[in-house]
Design the sequence.
């Protein structure tokens, strides 16, 4: 009987939550001997305004750019893993023209695990799932792990964005 290698799907968008999700997926994949499919999704405009003329870049160019950015993101996260696995898992990157939740749920078909980051925003809001993670938990065809960013990553992201931490 030929067993297929386990596969872990993880969604990334560059946020602290997706950084934590990717780190978790890489560690878990190394432990399980699984491969990792990194999914980056983008929704193109619903229409191109006729007066603006044709778009300056094609959807294929956007998809290729997102794949390059995701590959760099994977390298950064892999290099920063404090407890780096001895054997790095095989990683593939998929860029999808779709909403994030739809893309992740579709990619999770046949997967052993779907990993998503939490993007809760301070105080009480951080205890609730975001819309993408909630949709994945409710509709994914496999188990889902929702990973929260470390408090230091969240604070650094807020400082970079000039956001004020929520008080409460």
Sequence:
């Amino acid at each position: 009987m030929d067993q297929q290698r386990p596969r872990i799907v993880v969604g990334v968008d560059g946020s602290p939550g997706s950084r934590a999700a990717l780190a978790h997926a890489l560690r878990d994949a190394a432990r399980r001997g699984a491969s990792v499919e990194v999914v980056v999704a983008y929704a193109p405009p619903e229409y191109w305004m006729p007066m603006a003329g044709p778009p300056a870049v094609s959807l294929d160019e956007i998809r290729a750019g997102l794949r390059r950015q995701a590959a760099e993101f994977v390298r950064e996260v892999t290099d920063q893993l404090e407890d780096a696995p001895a054997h790095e898992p095989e990683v593939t990157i998929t860029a999808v023209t779709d909403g994030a939740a739809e893309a992740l749920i579709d990619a999770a078909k046949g997967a052993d695990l779907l990993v998503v980051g939490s993007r809760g925003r301070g105080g009480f809001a951080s205890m609730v799932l975001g819309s993408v993670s909630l949709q994945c938990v409710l509709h994914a065809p496999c188990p889902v792990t929702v990973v929260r960013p470390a408090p230091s990553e969240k604070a650094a992201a807020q400082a970079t964005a000039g956001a004020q931490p929520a008080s409460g």
Summary: The domain at 7-46+57-156 is CATH 3.40.50.12370 (Rossmann fold). The two ends are 57 Å apart (CA to CA). The longest helix spans residues 59-80.
